[in-house]
Amino acid sequence: MISLGCAKNQVDSELILSRFLAHGFRVVQRPIDADLVVINTCGFIGPAKEESIDTILDCLEGKRRRSALRVMVAGCLYQRYPGIPAELAQVDYWLTAPERADLDSLVRGVAADLYLSPRRLPRARDGSRRQVLLSEPGSAYLRISQGCDRPCAFCAIPTIKGPQRSRSIPELVADVQRLSSTFGVKEVNLVGQDLTRYGEDQGPNRFLELLTALEHDTDVRWFRLLYVYPLGLTPRVLEFLSRSSRFARYLDIPFQHSHGDVLKRMKRGGSGSRFLRDLDRIRAALPGVAVRTTMLVGHPGEEERHFEALLEFIRHARFEWMGVFPYSREDGTPSARMRGQVSPAIAEERAEEAMETFRQSRSLEAFGLGRVREALVIERERDGRLVCRTEKEAPEVDGLVFVSPQPGIDPGQMVAVRVTEAVDLDFAGEFVPDRPARPRRPGDRTGAGPSRRGSAARHSGRGARR
Predict the structure, then answer these.
(1) Within this chain, do residues 279 and 400 fall inside the same structural domain, yes or no?
(2) DSSP 3-state assignment of 299?
(3) What is the DSSP letter of 31?
(4) What does DSSP say about strands 165-166 and 187-191: parallel, antiparallel, or unpaired?
(5) Residue 218, Cβ neighbours under 10 Å: how many?
(6) Which of 226, 303, 372, 383 is 20 to 30 A distant from 16 in Cα terms?
(7) Residue 175 belongs to what H/E stretch?
(8) Which of 73, 49, 64 is nearest to 1 (CA)?
(9) Spatial contact of 309 and 357, defined as CB atoms under 8 Å apart
């Protein structure tokens, strides 16, 4: 299984892989040793599409060297370009929307093609159950919805995934409990194109109802909200989060830009002054919250004055985390047809400058330097150091906390650490033995730290969402 793209795609990869494992297949570490290679592709923006195509071609090269190898392509690239099989005729199987497919029938067909006898499954087997996770130890993603109803001019997601479709609350609660009991998951990261619009495809908004159910009816240690919008952070939602000891003081809010002219062309609305008021409101309700955002530079019509206004907004906002991406002209989107296209070179320069502005202006107050914090161990380095994350660092996109060596602790465990200093976008810390991490209480001001595995990784601080 080669899983490309976002965390939502990763959930699909886990579901596909789980069905193959349920039918008796096993995982091997090298594609050349496999009977079947599954590539779950991303088709969101140009670089992601190029990576998907290159990966497919690499696997097809392996097939030329060993004719018995089968190749399956799934995911966004095929969903966006349904005519692509004609150009890649050597691919054996194509899977458009894994969440809608009859994966058991698909696996049985592959097994028959490979002259294998698949394991016979009970009829009522729940195809939404994951038997394997591809995430960091102790952590998992929970996709609460699929698709998107927002009209963002630059984005192809609605074309690829269709309108929003929310999963039911009982199904999501059961999924979390399975993650806890089966895998020992301590951290569940909620993902979707816009978490705050949960349930609106079926009637009234049920976002707060979902949060309440997860808080009361499950037992994982942390929940994290990835991709929320300020309008959905209502007073009632913020009040709930302020009281909760299990929802991380962390919010991923994709502002994308700050100048009203650019936001209007993006079909997003808002302005820098309004966004600053939103941030004040959120930070007042959730002291110590770490806010991550994403900025898109080089959108058609973005002039130098618009970009300068964005830099000023970044300086005032003092985000704890930020990713910056140069605009990618995507066919089929309204932005691709707009006048005033910005050259890729200028967009790239602006992305570099915006990221540097963030690094110079970011706040460390929310990370709690010097305080004892609860941390999830995700890796042990060769020298024995523990690689950890606190509630203020999301997986894959933010920085890490590197903690002094400590024997007898394995990835996936929760430990108490004292974060001592910031090192670029990561942190250094020390293990605190025989002392539980001080639980966060409502109104507690935490503080400290940057992120991203090792470094800032281009403009994104580490990875891309959406």
Answers:
(1) no
(2) coil
(3) G
(4) unpaired
(5) 18
(6) 226
(7) helix 169-183
(8) 73
(9) no
Looking from the CA of 146 toward its CB, the CA atoms found within 13 Å total 16
Q: Is residue 127 part of a domain?
A: no
- What whole-number distance in Å separates Cα of residue 137 and Cα of residue 386? 13
Containing domain of residue 383, as a range?
366-431
pTM: 0.90
**Assigned domain for 120 exists:** no
Please give the single-letter amino acid code of residue 267.
K
Residue 35 within any structural domain of the chain: yes
353/373 same-domain check = no
**Are 153 and 214 found together in one domain?**
yes
For the chain, what is the mean pLDDT? 89
Per-residue pLDDT, 436: 54
Given 113, 128, 159, the domain boundary residue is: 113
- Sign, CA dihedral 408-385-461-4, equals negative
- Is residue 57 in a domain? yes
Name the pairing type of β-strands 401-403 and 426-431: parallel
| pLDDT for residue 67 | 85
How do residues 336-355 score in pLDDT, each as one tens digit?
999 999 999 999 999 999 99
DSSP state of 195: G
Question: What does the pLDDT read at residue 212?
Answer: 98
Residue 236: per-residue pLDDT:
98
CATH number at residue 349: 3.80.30.20
Element (H, E) at 418: strand 414-423
Domain co-membership, 221 together with 241: yes
Question: Tell me, what CATH number does 409's domain have?
Answer: 2.40.50.140
Closest CA to 313 of 270, 348, 346, 349: 270
Tell me if 409 sits within 8 A of 449, measured CB to CB. Answer: no
Dmax (CA) of the chain? 65
Calpha distance 448→364 (Å, rounded): 4
Q: What is the DSSP string of 220-239?
A: -SEEEEES--GGGS-HHHHH
Pairing type for strands 187-191 and 139-143 reads: parallel
- What is the number of domains present in the chain? 3
